């Protein structure tokens, strides 16, 4: 029974990829058209939202997105901005969740290897920013380009851990780029806690996958005293604790019945 369950999970990984490639091919003419000029990028984002939703829905994966109770929130995400959305990263599905959370015009920042992905390549050669994280020069150029995009009113979606954590739901240490960017451009950060995507689809699927509901919690925007000598460190620590505390609360106190499976590495 155990081996059969694992086989089913492995088969589901391929089915999930099939669904996303199928939807991508259906929408490719529009994706190609809207990726040609920056003026069309808002439409490209809308196509990306629909693609993410339909690909997941066909796989039996759905999103439950909750917003922190705060006056005017989440409407402020539509009426004001830009923002920097900072999320934990524990599954490749996280980018799909963030496509539903981010509003208006937005772009992702990611590692340069994503340009080699046959599906994601078209996005990272147009609307999104891919860079070599080991290169200071490349990182600096990406930082400047992201700043220009923010100046144009585009929100940024950044995973400050830098890569998918190998020990979910625990977080990797956060890198400083998102927080330097927020301070330089005086932009509020919206922390996002993705609570269980790794339990639906772990990493790149090497532990299998299954249908289910991905729970996500969007926190109110955080601003910081940008004139403080320790502004960057304080902002990073605040965002980190905000995300981490919500994840810990979910796994310790919720009645989520399909918890982290024993077939996966222990948390």
Radius of gyration (Å): 18 Å
CATH fold group:
Glycerol-3-phosphate (1)-acyltransferase
The helical percent reads 40-55%
Number of separate strands: 7
- Tally of individual helices: 9
CATH class, named Alpha Beta
CATH superfamily: Glycerol-3-phosphate (1)-acyltransferase
- Principal-axis shape equals globular
Largest sheet at a glance? 7 strands, mixed
Please list the strands of the largest sheet in the order they lie side by side. Answer: 1-7-6-2-5-3-4
* End-to-end distance: 24 Å
How many domain modules? 1
Computed structural class = alpha/beta
Averaging pLDDT over every residue, what do you get? 88
CATH architect. name: 3-Layer(aba) Sandwich
Order of helices and strands: HHEHEHEHEHEHEHEH
User: In terms of per-residue confidence, which ranges show pLDDT below 50 for 5 or more consecutive residues?
Assistant: 255-267
- Proportion of strand residues: 5-15%
Summary of the model, kept short:
Helices cover 45% and strands 14% of the residues. It is of the alpha/beta class and 267 residues long.
Characterization of the model:
Helices cover 45% and strands 14% of the residues. The chain has a 7-stranded mixed β-sheet with strand order 1-7-6-2-5-3-4, sandwiched between helices. The protein has a single domain (62-253), classed as Glycerol-3-phosphate (1)-acyltransferase. It has 267 residues and is an alpha/beta fold.
